[in-house]
Amino acid sequence: MGYALEFFDDPHAFLAAAEPLLSAEPVRCTVVASVTARHARSGDSARPVDAPAPWWVVVRDEAGVPVSAGMRTAPMVPYPPYLLAMPEEAAVLLARTLHERGESVEVVNGYVPTIDVFGAATIALSGGSPSETERTSLYEVTELVEPPAVEGRFRIAREDEVDLVQGWFDLFGPDASEQAGRVDPHPAIETRESTRGRIVAGDVWLWEAPDGTPVSVTAFNPPSFGVARVGPVYTPKEHRGHGYAAAGVAAISRRLLDEGARVCLFADGQNKTSTGVYLRLGYRPIAVTGGLRILAG
């Protein structure tokens, strides 16, 4: 079967073209749907001026039906593409097309085995060798299991706390890699401006100890095609072991479920601490995703 690629530089046009796919598989498409929706709401206002222009792609089958999609919207170096699951032939076609467009790909994120096929095709064209950065699972919760009660309160982050939240977001990657026993660091997850935008939107919450000290952060992406995604979740080392992360994730999940959304999150399979928390809360794995680094030859 032959496949065709349709590229977009306008998130609104992409959402319209990809709607049949995104609405049919809203949980599995959560990253593409929520990130694109954020671009549609705010444009490039939170994007560094030196970052390349974002793009989106729809994969169509011979009948013109959307069967997969991808995007290159990450605001941080090396600007990795994110790919939904797609047929091998389509993944190879995308790798070849990006090569012909002169786009260098050092890291690719998304669904397994699509990223492995894409990586192998990219290496065949440009040289290099593959190095797995992480393997994560996509989890969904339908019946939330309440965790033990924790002292303190859960509150929305204030705009004057952007430096605190950004500092914790910056630590999330290195700490997640350390907990998972990896050397390759987790990529940065937010810029300061994107963090500010999420705080202003009310999508970042803090667990506050009884003395008023913030001790943990839980963020979420608001529903897109009926699916909300929790994350990132971070507790500094000095505050771990008290149940703050579980309490925060439970509170956000409960709120989103009560509002009628389906709720999901990603967790690193090698990080037994975080996956244990999510499993105890009732989250269950439904798909495997990850990242692949292409090392220079």
TrEMBL record:
<dbReference type="InterPro" id="IPR000182">
    <property type="entry name" value="GNAT_dom"/>
</dbReference>
<dbReference type="GO" id="GO:0016747">
    <property type="term" value="F:acyltransferase activity, transferring groups other than amino-acyl groups"/>
</dbReference>
<dbReference type="InterPro" id="IPR016181">
    <property type="entry name" value="Acyl_CoA_acyltransferase"/>
</dbReference>
<dbReference type="Pfam" id="PF08445">
    <property type="entry name" value="FR47"/>
</dbReference>
<keyword id="KW-0808">Transferase</keyword>
<protein>
    <submittedName>
        <fullName>GNAT family N-acetyltransferase</fullName>
    </submittedName>
</protein>
<feature type="domain" description="N-acetyltransferase">
    <location>
        <begin position="152"/>
        <end position="297"/>
    </location>
</feature>
<dbReference type="InterPro" id="IPR013653">
    <property type="entry name" value="GCN5-like_dom"/>
</dbReference>
